[in-house]
TrEMBL record:
Pfam families: zf-ChsH2. It comes from the Bacteria. It comes from Streptomyces antibioticus. This is Benzoylsuccinyl-CoA thiolase. Residues 16-48 form the ChsH2 rubredoxin-like zinc ribbon domain.
Amino acid sequence: MVAGWFTEGGDGSGFRLLGTRCSACGAVFFPREDAYCRNPGCGGGDLEEVPLSRRGRIWSYTDSRYRPPSPYVTNPELPWEPYALIAVELEAERIVVLGQAVPGVTVADLAVGMEVEVVPGVLYEDTGTTWMTWQWRPTGVAG
Ligand SMILES: [Zn+2]
């Protein structure tokens, strides 16, 4: 599951992905790495939680026509809705973050270099429970 991978911004700061940053070398990890720095050239430092940039640029994208594997939760009794899967480069962190496009956005709407921003989305719902995830929404700024 995706607990601890984002903050809903209840303090007014807005929805943000959460990664961790090594205090020794400055490398940023998403999904968050809490055990040890994965930079092979680093002696290892403390890993601190950091909110990631809200916006990035599309590095690549694809149509996801199949049910995603764990840790994504899907209801096997519902028809699978294909969605656009986007890899977004965050310039400040120098990492690429995968995510779904917001509903209604297809690969025909996307281009490499296009600016997108992270927004909350619904991963899965059943009676009484809603699991949230992050999604990428084009900002209207071309590449
Ligand atoms: Zn490090």
